């Protein structure tokens, strides 16, 4: 199958939906491709109670003349104006004049002893599982890692009946106050509010604290928490641990978009360094839903040549960038987190490559060639970010750069020459 | 729990599981108490990211291997195999 669009949007989270709706309203023929069962992205997962902003935008999407390819995964860029995608039983070439990348973010995971045990999950990971039908009522959960997601997850799980044994934020209280300063005028009060609201659902809130180990035989039984050199064990059914978010850069990198300091470089109109390719939302800087919606609108309008309208919104966007920087500083990882993994601790979960097997390699490429680190099913999506933090390796640029397919795909999806066949018959 | 209009019945490694509509196969696997897979060195594993990135939740669903179970919704009569 092959489809032609004026504007193709990759990713149906807040940024992607906003982009698709804006471009369609401006008269563009729009395609929206996304690999989840339903639109909304990770933040507005279906099956859960949706905030009003989500319901309103999803309703606009339903009403808009947007061709939706839900459950489709983009895995290659065959030529400069076409992406190749596959779903459960089909593949397609998606042609575009303008491309908007709204590929979202994932959680960053760091290795520590026991982190591969079943029932140790991401913070957003456990939240997604619960939204996906996992019963959590009566289960003891430790929520850990860093970033605003932790409190949101803890509050949601508590509402669903979970017993939140502890919330552990790796950042120091000083950093959190600095972040809070960007949110309200009285940051200390905001922090007290956080501690208070944590207390109201029975949770202890620790700063400068993290899981040093997860313990159990075939599954998680206890978590060893550490704070200022003091260690203690907490019994729990789930450990929900994620170290903030990292952008999904595989597709922007494959297309050759300039990436600086871990994010896609964009101008005021969300244009990347590649002609006709735009980027909106978390890949352009982790800033949350409101900023993603704004950037999506800007990108959608800019792609439809509504430059003046896009510029007006860009002024609003610039005001939010201070928060992006503050969030980045607050979630900066404590270097002591580098010391948690033992030589026997696995870093690459797909190929079972240990910290000890990796630590003497010079770079990501060297480690891949010698140990198969990052060469399993997830293609380094989990261990790549971990090695960037642990060893300072660069996983997306230079010799170690990304190659197609950006997601594992069926052999038949590579060998089907859809675009070529169509060109010959035209 | 018997299947009603509001629930979906399926099996995970022949263990009967009942879930709410909209539940993912990964949730059904956890409800059944089964690991999703064994790692290269034989470790039991379960879902990690919940969003189709980590591939820890891959399972055989209705005979199709290596499906990311967190991205697929349960349907009545579905047969899931893990490990």
Number of helices of chain B: 1
Helix-strand pattern of chain B = EEHEEEEE
What percentage of the residues of chain B does DSSP assign to strands (E)? 25-35%
Termini separation of chain B: 25 Å
Classify the secondary structure makeup of chain A into a structural class: alpha/beta
Helix content of chain A: 25-40%
CATH superfamily of chain B: Beta-grasp domain
Share in helix of chain B: under 10%
> In the CATH scheme, what's the topology name of chain B?
Ubiquitin-like (UB roll)
Radius of gyration of chain A using CA atoms only: 22 Å
Poorly predicted runs of chain A: none
Q: What's the CATH class label of chain B?
A: Alpha Beta
Beta-strand content of chain A: 15-25%
Helical segment count of chain A = 14
Poorly predicted runs of chain B: none
Mean pLDDT of chain A: 91
Calculate Rg of chain B over CA atoms: 12 Å
Q: Based on Cα principal axes, name the global outline of chain A.
A: globular
Task: Please indicate the count of domains of chain B.
Answer: 1
Q: What general form of chain B does the structure show?
A: globular
How would you describe this structure in keywords?
heterodimer; A: 426 residues; alpha/beta; seven-stranded mixed beta sheet; 14 helices; 34% helix; globular; B: 83 residues; mainly beta; Ubiquitin-like (UB roll)
């Amino acid at each position: 199958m092959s489809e032609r669009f004026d504007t193709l949007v990759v990713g149906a989270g807040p940024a992607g939906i906003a982009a698709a709706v804006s471009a369609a309203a401006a008269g563009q023929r729009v395609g929206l491709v996304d690999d989840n069962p339903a639109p909304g992205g990770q933040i507005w997962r279906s099956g859960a109670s949706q905030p009003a902003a989500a319901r309103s935008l999803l309703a606009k999407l339903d009403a808009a003349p947007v061709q939706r390819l839900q459950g489709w995964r983009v895995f290659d860029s065959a030529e400069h104006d076409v992406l190749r995608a596959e779903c459960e039983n089909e593949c397609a070439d998606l042609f575009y004049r303008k491309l908007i990348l709204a590929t979202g973010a994932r959680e960053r995971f760091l290795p520590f002893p026991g982190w591969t045990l079943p029932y140790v999950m991401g913070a957003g990971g456990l939240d997604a599982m619960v939204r996906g039908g996992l019963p959590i009522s009566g289960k003891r959960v430790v929520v850990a890692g860093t970033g605003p997601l932790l409190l949101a997850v803890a509050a949601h799980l508590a509402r669903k009946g979970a017993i939140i044994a502890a919330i552990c934020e790796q950042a120091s209280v000083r950093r959190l106050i600095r972040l809070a300063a960007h949110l309200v005028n009285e940051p200390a009060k905001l922090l007290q509010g956080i501690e208070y609201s944590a207390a109201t659902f029975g949770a202890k809130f620790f700063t400068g604290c993290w899981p040093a180990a997860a313990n159990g035989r075939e599954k998680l039984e206890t978590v060893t928490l550490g704070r200022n050199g003091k260690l203690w064990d907490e019994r729990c059914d789930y450990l929900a641990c994620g170290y903030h978010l990292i952008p999904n850069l595989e597709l922007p990198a494959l297309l050759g978009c300039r990436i600086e300091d871990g994010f896609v470089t964009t101008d005021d109109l969300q244009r990347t360094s590649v002609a006709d390719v735009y980027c909106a939302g978390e890949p352009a800087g982790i800033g949350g839903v409101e900023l993603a919606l704004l950037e999506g609108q800007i990108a959608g309008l800019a792609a439809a040549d509504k430059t003046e309208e896009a510029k007006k919104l860009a002024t609003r966007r610039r005001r939010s960038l201070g928060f992006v920087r503050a969030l980045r500083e607050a979630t900066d990882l404590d270097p002591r987190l580098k010391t948690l993994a033992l030589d026997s601790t696995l870093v690459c979960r797909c190929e079972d490559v240990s910290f000890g097997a990796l630590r003497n390699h010079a770079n990501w490429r060297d480690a891949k060639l010698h140990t198969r680190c990052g060469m399993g099913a997830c293609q380094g999506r989990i261990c790549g970010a971990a090695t960037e933090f642990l060893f300072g390796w660069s996983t997306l640029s230079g010799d170690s750069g990304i190659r197609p397919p950006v997601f594992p795909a069926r052999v038949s999806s590579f060998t089907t020459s859809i675009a070529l066949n169509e060109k010959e018959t035209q | 729990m018997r299947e009603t209009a509001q629930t979906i019945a399926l099996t995970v490694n022949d263990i009967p599981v009942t879930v709410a509509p909209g539940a993912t196969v990964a949730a059904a696997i956890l409800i059944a108490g089964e690991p999703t897979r064994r790692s290269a060195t034989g470790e039991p594993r379960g879902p990690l990211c919940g969003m189709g990135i980590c591939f820890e939740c891959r399972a055989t669903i209705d005979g199709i291997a290596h499906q990311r179970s967190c991205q697929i919704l349960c349907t009545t009569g579905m047969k899931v195999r893990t490990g």
